[in-house]
Write a structure and sequence with these properties.
Chain lengths: 587, 171
């Protein structure tokens, strides 16, 4: 991608920019590994990096000191990598994170796994103990190379100083090309101080094809399937967000009268308020979305994984439908279910070919059916008796936010309420840890999103469980004066698990009720945020107004009842229409 | 169902852990894995023998192919592959059965690599079947130790097989 235009610049830097910058002894000594990393960051046009220093990266941080590279200091390495992730999701660019060896590196693991599951481009650079002590269980030594194999797209342990520039280039290229993902480069401390004069070589990875050409015959076969279909559905995944195919999807849906279901990672790619949009499919999707899938005769997966949270029981998924699957990753085809037609390749290229071949086809009957399903099986929740209904609170937040607001969520009930009730109209404006479901992702990811969009409005919906997993990052929010708005839905428990215990484990609430929670308003104020708490439905609108108009970061604690549930619910592994019904109190 | 994958990889540090780790991590079965250099010093060939149902085997191939270091994966299941394996086997060779054992060693064409008072070590090479045969033939004598390389395999080169003359004594 952009590796080609780098080499000359780096070479130039190497000659011209090596003056004694900070009185370091040795004046015109050759560039070292740490400086090579900084040169790489500058020449790759990476605006900023997130990180946390430590013993094994002191040379790197020394090179960073007066380099002009912008570094965001978090309060935990996990915060740093989730922030890099949020930055990448909001901007589409590579998020870069630095951490030290040992615990610094292992603290990245959850973030790497989170990014890997949702195909987020991240470059993680970790320090390592010196090569001479590698493998001897020295202080703060951890085999992050070995540890990170299963949670990265690729990873490196640098063993020869002169390979560093080429490897950084290759790592960046791998992270951002093809199906994106996190890439880790582990740099021993002695490599950071060794002389590194080599210029990066051109990236050449035989056998790696980041942009496979869509097969024209496969496209034709798909167009034929589509032409024969009476009740087609587009099923959008994260790949659609990455490929940036908003226009193509709109054209396809409208010209073909296709209903559209939108997974967490695709939210906003097709506007939630469009009359063909059926929102979230699967476990917590609206009934109409799942009923439509059940009646469909053609499901067209675009950049999706046919994930178990969407599909449920593979044998009973869309029983009357042919399946078409578009993905850039050939290994996704047939992983969970075997499609009738598959197109491997860049989604944009593939959809452009499809759009050029399809003839406008109105499916009035299907459109009517969808509309009637929407009316008969909509998202419903009771009004309550004055207490705050989280669904309604999120709906009100949604109305108060504009189309450019970036909504970030944490993980749990609030995440599903947000997916159901928050209307996203543009891509990359709804950021959520989908595949990994990482609690604690929200706050640092909001920080990253704010750095990606310095003028943008970032709103985080979190829960009392998730929020406490990374709340140390409030300090980062304050240090950089980020006007992030936090709506904390507090039910005093780990609601999603509690809900499952209620339904499927006879209300045996094993370790899901917090008998203690801090005073979140006081806590936020200690950090310096504006804050208030509400617990009455009548207060919600005004409180949201106050939060959004506050000059600076703000926490709005929304207290809700403990036994609020996310409905509808299809229990894990069940068929598309096996809706779980609450018998007694019907909440 | 068994499958032989012949995998060409970039000769990078850690490449074997990437391949082996992937196969175990995703719950596939490994019967054997053997790696060694090729004529190109940048490239290593890994022969992976795996088993499972057709769907799983298709996934193994795709997931292996997806690894960044993998240049090419050949699925040798459906072709006539050339295969070979080598094993070292130490067998008890005590008292009266020693002569019988030596007889078998000659019969099977095994190579003697070590002789002790109470044991013999032989080397066998050939197809995996000939190694299996040697192992089962030696088993009654008591195998004390064994090392097998695991299968290596190559696709048969494309091109016509040499046709022998009619006068050829072998015909």
């Amino acid at each position: 991608m952009n590796q080609n235009n780098k080499s000359p610049q780096v070479a130039k830097d190497d000659k011209g920019d090596r003056k004694n910058k900070n009185g370091r002894p040795g004046g015109r000594r050759p560039r070292n590994g740490a400086e090579a990393i900084i040169d790489f960051i500058k020449s790759s046009k990476i605006d900023l990096v997130f990180g946390y220093p430590g013993g094994a990266v002191i040379p790197l941080y020394d090179a960073l000191y007066d380099s002009g590279v912008r570094h965001i200091l978090t309060r935990h390495e996990q915060g740093a990598i989730h922030a890099a992730d949020g930055y990448a999701r909001a901007s589409g660019k590579v998020g870069v994170v630095l951490a030290t060896s040992g615990p610094g590196a292992t603290n990245l693991v959850t973030g790497l796994a989170t990014a890997y599951m949702d195909s987020v481009p991240i470059l993680a650079i970790t320090g390592q103990v010196a090569l001479s002590s590698l493998g001897s269980d020295s202080f703060q030594e951890a085999d992050i190379y070995g540890i990170s194999i299963p949670v990265t797209k690729y990873n490196y342990l640098i063993k020869k100083p002169q390979t560093l520039p080429s490897i950084l280039n290759e790592a960046y290229y791998l992270a951002s090309s093809g199906r994106p993902g996190p890439v880790l480069v582990d740099v021993p401390k002695d490599i950071q101080v060794a002389e590194v004069t080599a210029a990066p070589q051109r990236v050449d990875i035989p056998g790696y094809d980041p942009r496979p050409k869509p097969d024209v015959r496969a496209i034709d076969s798909f167009v034929e399937h589509l032409d024969n279909a009476k009740r087609p559905i587009l099923y959008l995944g994260g790949g659609a967000t990455i490929a940036n195919v908003t226009e193509e999807i709109k054209f396809l849906a409208e010209s073909q009268d296709m209903a559209v279901v939108v997974t967490l990672q695709a939210k906003g790619i097709f506007p939630d308020d469009h009359q063909l949009c059926l929102g979230l499919p699967g476990m917590h999707g609206a009934k109409y979305a799942n009923l439509a899938i059940n009646e469909s005769d053609l499901i067209v997966g675009l950049g999706v994984r046919f994930d178990d949270r969407v599909v449920g029981n593979v044998q009973r998924f869309a029983p009357y439908a042919k399946i078409a699957h578009f993905d850039i990753d050939p290994a996704e085809i047939g992983k969970r279910l075997s499609p009738d037609t598959a197109v491997v390749g860049d989604l944009k290229e593939a959809l452009e070919l499809v759009c050029a071949k399809v003839k406008k086809k109105l499916r009035g009957e299907w459109r009517e059916r969808i509309n009637s399903l929407r009316i008969s099986h909509g998202l419903v929740f009771p009004d309550g008796h004055g207490e705050i209904k989280p669904q309604r609170a999120i709906g009100l937040l949604s109305e108060a936010c504009g189309p450019d607001t970036v909504l970030v969520t944490d993980v749990g009930q609030h995440q599903m309420w947000a997916a159901q009730n928050y209307r996203s109209l543009k891509p990359r404006k709804f950021l959520s840890s989908g595949g990994m479901g990482t609690m604690g992702f929200g706050l640092p990811a909001s920080i990253g999103a704010q750095f990606a969009l310095p003028e943008g409005q970032i709103v985080l919906i979190t829960g009392d469980g998730s929020f406490q997993m990374c709340l140390q990052e409030l300090a980062t929010v304050m240090q950089y004066n980020l006007p992030i708005k936090i709506m904390l839905i507090n039910n005093g428990c780990l609601g999603m698990v509690r809900q499952w215990q209620q339904f499927f484990f006879n209300r045996r609430y094993s370790q899901t009720i917090f008998n203690f929670n801090p005073d979140f308003v006081a806590l936020a104020k200690v950090y310096g945020l504006g804050a208030e708490a509400i617990d009455k439905a009548s207060e919600v609108s005004n409180a949201i107004e106050r939060m959004l108009s506050y000059d600076g970061p703000y926490l709005l604690e929304v207290k809700i009842l403990e036994e609020e549930n996310v409905m509808p619910l299809i229990p894990a592994g069940m068929g598309q229409t096996d809706f779980f019904e609450l018998e007694e109190e019907g909440r | 169902m068994k499958k032989i994958l012949s995998i060409l990889v970039r000769n990078r540090p850690g490449v074997l852990s990437h391949v082996a780790g992937l196969v175990t991590r995703r719950g596939y079965n490994v019967e054997s894995i053997a790696a060694g250099p090729t004529q190109d010093r940048e490239v290593t060939r890994i022969t992976l023998v795996t088993s499972g149902d057709a769907r799983m085997l298709e996934q193994v191939t795709k997931q292996v192919n997806k690894l960044i270091d993998v240049i090419n994966v050949e699925d040798l299941e459906h072709r006539e592959a050339m295969t070979g394996e080598l094993a070292l086997i130490t067998v008890s060779a005590e008292g009266v059965r020693r002569a019988e054992l030596l007889n078998l060693v000659t019969l099977l064409g095994l190579t003697l690599v070590d002789i002790r008072e109470d044991s013999l070590t032989v080397m066998v090479s050939g197809s995996d079947m000939s190694v299996d045969m040697a192992v089962s033939g030696l088993a009654p004598f008591g195998i004390r130790a064994m090392a097998r390389t695991g299968l290596v395999a190559l696709a048969r080169p494309v091109g016509s097989i040499l046709v022998q003359d009619k006068e050829d004594p072998w015909c």
